[in-house]
Amino acid sequence: NPNIIMNGSIRQGWSLWSILTSSPRPLLYLTFAVNYVLGGLNVFGYHVFNLAVHLIAALALFGVIRRTFGSVLLASSVPDRGWSLALITSLLWLVHPLQTQSVTYIFQRAEAMMGMFYLLTLYAAIRFFEGKAGQKWWAALSVAACFLGMTCKPVMLTAPVLVLFYDRIFWAQSWTDLYRKRKK
């Protein structure tokens, strides 16, 4: 009730300023405003959006797991199994009954969007760590996803720490090596 039905800021249509200044979670409430403009209080559109977020998160999880098995640390120990393990894991996560709430409970969108951006932050960072073409774009995408996640839920503040430890565990040989590679 207070976040959607009684929330006057999302009923003002495309009043971006109202949404940005009335909430510590502006992207979350912007998505509610878009849902409200498109369908009022009809829950169908809200559920479709939540489902889309959940599917994108599952794809990002697949990418994170698959690329993790291709990292310097694991590439030799799990040859050619990263793809199938990533697929099985992400499918189980996608259809697990505990995930039902992220689609059916409308305000759970805050958690689902933050989780999606968390996984996208990590996925883009991994692509950056691989050092292939477009490396700067992947770094920028990782930072942008992290920022967008922070506009959904404050717990996203832990994402840079996770990325740092992920880099150290899977890509750098030591903290000194990590500093040498990433000091810029």
What does this structure look like?
- With 184 residues, the protein is mainly α.
- It is 68% helix and 0% strand.
- The chain has nine helices and no strands.
- The chain has helices at 16-22, 26-39, 43-69, 82-95, 100-104, 109-130, 135-150, 159-170, 175-182.
- The model has no long low-confidence stretch (mean pLDDT 87).
Q: What are the main properties of this structure?
A:
184 residues; mainly alpha; 68% helix
What is the compact description of this entry?
This protein is mainly α. Helices cover 68% and strands 0% of the residues. The model has no long low-confidence stretch (mean pLDDT 87).
Write the layout of secondary structure elements.
Layout lengths: L15 H7 L3 H14 L3 H27 L12 H14 L4 H5 L4 H22 L4 H16 L8 H12 L4 H8 L2
* Global morphology: globular
- Specify the biggest β-sheet: none
* β-strand amount: under 5%
Low-confidence regions:
none
* Number of E-state strands: 0
- Structural class estimated from helices and strands: mainly alpha
Averaged pLDDT, please? 87
The helical percent reads 55-70%
Number of helices: 9
* Succession of helices and strands: HHHHHHHHH
| N-C termini distance | 47 Å
